[in-house]
Design a protein that fits this description.
Blueprint lengths: L5 H26 L1 E3 L2 E3 L3 H20 L4 H6 L1 E5 L6 H10 L1 H4 L6 H9 L6 H6 L1 E5 L1
Antiparallel strand pairs: 1-2, 3-4
Amino acid sequence: MDNAPVWKRILGGLIDIILLIVVSVVYSMFFGTVGGGSFSVEGWPALGLFAIGFLYFVALEATTGKTVGKLLTGTRVVDASGDRIGWGKSLIRNLLRIVDSLPLFYIVGLIAIIASKNKQRIGDMAAKTFVING
């Protein structure tokens, strides 16, 4: 497998974050408050916003192997045989995104990617998934 280089993973992640920030602002216009350079949602709308962000990664990676960031950087998530990862592996991979993002700015995930021979973050190792070129 042709593992994606770290810079492609970072760029793809930044693209996804920017997209989700835009979605969050628009969502907040309808279900929360926007003003003074910030936005906020509370209660059930906050849970809905969390679900949108989480399901964005889980659903797209499970069904296509690509988020918008991965599509634009020419990368995708696959299992050990090079096939789509499906819902179970996608769920594991993305639940552990919380650990990978610690303490902030994905430091744990970045260290794991750099240190592992297959350029895997903690979520990839647990789900037995790989981010590859293609």
